[in-house]
Design a protein that fits this description.
Length: about 100
């Protein structure tokens, strides 16, 4: 039996471990486990955010790459057309010169 002082009958000191200590020891693994779960959830959330950020960066890089390829193709096409127009113009001028030279002779 336990008297009002918290010691067993016939015992002069309180026991080293009280009932509250025993209960708190039983709760500690659960709280430790809960704390570990919370830490794991935080790490998981950080990882998910990091993955989402990386995915967004990859998508943005892909978009920029496609945009650059499109601009390059447009520039290449523009240069090709300019060259074609210049060649036609030079051909026309050459034909006109030849015509004039024939007429002069």
């Amino acid at each position: 039996m336990v008297n009002l002082k918290g010691t067993l009958k016939g015992q002069k000191e309180k026991p080293k471990f009280s009932l509250d200590d025993m209960l708190s020891d039983e709760e500690e693994p659960q709280s430790k486990q809960q704390r570990e779960i919370e830490e794991w959830k935080k790490k998981k959330e950080i990882a998910m955010q990091s993955i989402a950020k990386e995915r967004k960066n990859l998508e943005e890089n892909e978009r920029l790459k496609k945009e650059k390829e499109k601009k390059d193709l447009e520039e290449k096409e523009r240069l090709r057309k300019e060259k074609e127009e210049r060649m036609l113009k030079e051909k026309k001028e050459a034909e006109e010169r030849m015509k004039k030279e024939k007429e002069e002779k």
